[in-house]
């Protein structure tokens, strides 16, 4: 994979799971990392140590991506400390599952606020910096359920479908400025988020995956590393499924 030496990358929700794997991967390729986290400062310190042991630099910036001014601060810190912002990975996400007949209004709003508005907030603040620098790469983490829908996830699948709209609109607006915007739609990835699901759900999901295994955070990090590299300069506005063939 091509070197990202000298590039600065923000990863939101980088304290664990897919965000952590993406951050470590980009650091292995030489990028300086800005690790956004919401509350788990201990875990994010461990991620910093792991990145530093690979010879790259990382800082942690606390912030809730659903808050406009927090997103502004994450971008500001990146530019202050590393002098540029080349890569933004909108990874932070939550689930609050429930059937539509029972879902509470606040559970709908919260999931939209973090997953969808959070991505907008970060792009809104990062894009002007990238425009000034005449280039950048943005990757938004969507989900296969944003494409297919999913019973019990009306809030989450709406947010993840929304991310696809955000990706395509931003890609169209920012292409002339040398900024590529793409989305990755993971299938079922083994992380804390999916650990809580019942064995029954896990088993029936596994049966729907042609490659017959759950994905790893590494599988997603590999695709993100490609999309932010010069090899992907001619790719924008795309949604790439990384799902073992679950959706095709
Ligand atoms: P996770 O729950 O392990 O990690 C999510 C991270 O986001 C955590 O570090 C959490 O602290 C952070 N976060 C949550 N709310 C935040 C906020 N308001 N501000 C800043 N950070 C916040 O989940 P996982 O599995 O690593 O998911 C990462 C992304 O991938 C999410 O967007 C998720 O929706 C998406 N995804 C995951 C799939 C899976 O099977 N695990 C499948 C499809 C998409």
UniProtKB/TrEMBL annotation:
Keywords: Fatty acid biosynthesis, Fatty acid metabolism, Lipid biosynthesis, Lipid metabolism, NADP, Oxidoreductase, Steroid metabolism. InterPro entries: 3oxo_ACP_reduc, KR_dom, NAD(P)-bd_dom_sf, Sc_DH/Rdtase_CS, SDR, SDR_fam. The keyword Cytoplasm does not apply. Its EC number is 1.1.1.100. CDD domains: BKR_SDR_c. It catalyses: a (3R)-hydroxyacyl-[ACP] + NADP(+) = a 3-oxoacyl-[ACP] + NADPH + H(+). The active site is at residue 156. Homotetramer. NCBIfam families: 3oxo_ACP_reduc, PRK05653.1-3, PRK07231.1, PRK12826.1-2. This is 3-oxoacyl-[acyl-carrier-protein] reductase. It comes from Clostridium aciditolerans.
């Amino acid at each position: 994979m091509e070197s990202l030496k000298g590039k600065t990358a923000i990863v939101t929700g980088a304290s664990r799971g897919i965000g952590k794997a993406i951050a470590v991967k980009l650091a292995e390729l030489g990028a300086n990392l800005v690790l956004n986290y919401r509350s788990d400062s201990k875990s994010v310190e461990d991620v910093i140590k792991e990145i530093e042991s690979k010879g790259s630099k990382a800082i942690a910036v606390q912030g809730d991506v659903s808050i406009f001014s927090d997103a502004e601060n994450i971008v500001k810190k990146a530019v202050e400390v590393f002098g540029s912002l080349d890569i933004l990975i909108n990874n932070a996400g939550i689930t609050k599952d429930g059937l539509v007949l029972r879902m509470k209004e606040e559970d709908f709003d919260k999931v939209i606020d973090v997953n969808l508005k959070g991505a907008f907030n970060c792009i809104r603040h990062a894009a002007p910096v990238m425009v000034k620098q005449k280039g950048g790469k943005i990757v938004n983490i969507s989900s296969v359920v944003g494409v297919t829908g999913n019973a019990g996830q009306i809030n989450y699948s709406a947010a993840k479908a929304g991310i696809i709209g955000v990706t395509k609109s931003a890609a169209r607006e920012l292409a002339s400025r040398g900024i590529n915007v793409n989305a990755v739609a993971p299938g079922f990835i083994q992380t804390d988020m999916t650990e809580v699901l019942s064995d029954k759900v896990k088993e029936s999901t596994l049966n729907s995956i042609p490659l017959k295994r759950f994905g790893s955070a590494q599988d997603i990090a590999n695709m993100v590393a490609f999309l932010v590299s010069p090899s992907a300069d001619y790719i924008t506005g795309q949604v790439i499924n990384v799902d073992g063939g679950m959706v095709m």
